[in-house]
Amino acid sequence: MFEPHYTSLDRALIALNNALDTLGASAAARRPSPAAGLEPAPMSEPERRDVAGLMRVNHTGEVCAQALYLGQAALARNATTRAHLLHAADEEADHLAWCGARLRELHSRPSLFNPLWYAGSYALGALAACAGDGPSLGFVAETERQVEAHLQSHLERLPATDDASRAILEQMKQDEARHARQASAGGGTPLPWPVPRLMRLSATLMKAVAYRI
């Protein structure tokens, strides 16, 4: 598989451009939103604030996913693994755009800490890649399994009338489950037992902060 040769400066500029694209307000989806064409749901003000908080958490999760995948892809050791990570990042970019659009419909905004979440997740992705392609793909599989469980908890919490948010989260959940399967099938190796626990703890902190700020 042909891969272009990039200098260190090229890679730095590409990484900066990816970060700006992810953190900007103009993220565009390649696939139509699952919520397209659905009528806005009547919600009380407390329900709207709660749904906005949930969608802000999901938007931040997609910011983190972009950073993780791109950090892993930057240091992946073979072209097949890199292609897998970049393809998954493309689909996660759809999720990012869908969540951003839903936040605007709810008259809300993304987390103010997204630049911090992005930087930390990119570093974590690069660190995972340094362990080798097997552990790196194993990290993807575990991340996606945890995200799938988190999305299910949000689906159970949404107001029954909020078809738009539900449609987005259900499609995201399907995509995350597929990414986990693909990462495992691609050679992902199980992570040492403390790592999934630490991942859950850090995700809990992110969700608590992003829901409010």
Would you kindly provide a written description of the structure presented here, covering whatever features stand out?
The chain is mainly alpha-helical and 213 residues long. 74% of the residues lie in helices and 0% in strands. The model has no long low-confidence stretch (mean pLDDT 85).
Give a quick set of tags describing it.
single chain, 213 residues, mainly alpha, 7 helices, globular
Q: What is the residue-mean pLDDT, rounded to a whole number?
A: 85
Question: Which percent bin holds the helix content?
Answer: over 70%
Structural class, judged by helices and strands?
mainly alpha
Shape: globular
Give a short overview.
With 213 residues, the protein is mainly alpha-helical. The chain has helices spanning 8-23, 45-74, 79-105, 114-130, 133-157, 163-185, 194-212. Helix 1 (8-23) runs antiparallel to helix 2 (45-74), helix 2 (45-74) packs antiparallel against helix 3 (79-105) and helix 3 (79-105) packs antiparallel against helix 6.
Give a topology summary.
Layout: H1 8-23, H2 45-74, H3 79-105, H4 114-130, H5 133-157, H6 163-185, H7 194-212
